[in-house]
Amino acid sequence: MGTGSVFCKCKFLCLGAMVLFLGGCSGGGQQEQKSAGQPLVERNTIATILDRGQINITFNLAAERYQFKDKNNEPAGMAIDLAKMIAANLDVDLVMTDTSWEGLIPSLLTDKSDFLATTMSTTFARAQQVLFTSEDWYITGVSIWTKEGNAINNWQDLNDSGRRIGAVAGTVSAEVAADYFPEAEIQTFQIDTDVWEALVTGRIDAGMNDNIFKNTVALNYSGKLTLLTTPRELVKTDTWAYAVRPGDEFMWHYLNFFIKKVKENGQLEKLEEYWTKGDQWRVDYVQPGMQLSETRKNLVKFIGISDYEKEIGDTYRVSMQ
Fold this sequence. Notes:
The chain is an alpha/beta fold. Helices cover 40% and strands 20% of the residues. The chain has 13 helices and 11 strands.
């Protein structure tokens, strides 16, 4: 029996064990909160998802390799695969919504998204609004690019009143730009492509984005943009984790359990290898007229999401709204 199916069959046992654990450990905390006059926020998003037979997740589908729309206008990427795995393990349909980056946290706090499974960096500012899982699913960092032929070789030289630095609004890159380059003019854009185009056309002197875009930029802007690696390639490192609503303790425990398990059984490693280490994903999901490779089909089966992959399963349990 495959790892994915074992995980799926064990979900109810795990859920029951976690309910008992939380029930046994939370009594004192409830009493303390009530005595302090602060109402306890009780949620069970997992039970709601199981009752409706559907999980709702909001994404910003603008990051190749991680979360984007493929050649058939279907969501694809490493983060999407992980979301499909969560849906498969709960045996529910997956409904995704595409929104702007700045709309992600509001979608969570207004119950439009059951949790956030996107490429979201953990920051102190965001932790004041949402509860991040203690387990991260990716480690990366922020880098800087300039236009090819630009005289700038050291990104520290960008901290000057005459320099213009671009980043996507609401992202860690924009925060790092403001923190590390207080003297420069920081310009924000709606999507990643806007930053690159502004840099190519000379409207900004440098563009800041996640280091995950290194291969994509090298491919799409070869001879046009240069990654600055002095004094180091990563201006600042950061981690990605899932986010839940404050008080949604059961969901928080379940997602930590999920991330820990996919790390232990090698599924996360295989996903990272496929989506970030090579370009087979581009052949499978970007190049028109190409069918899924055997590599991709085998990966889909290994991570247990056949019914969430259009060309493989007997049914297709994914939709966009």
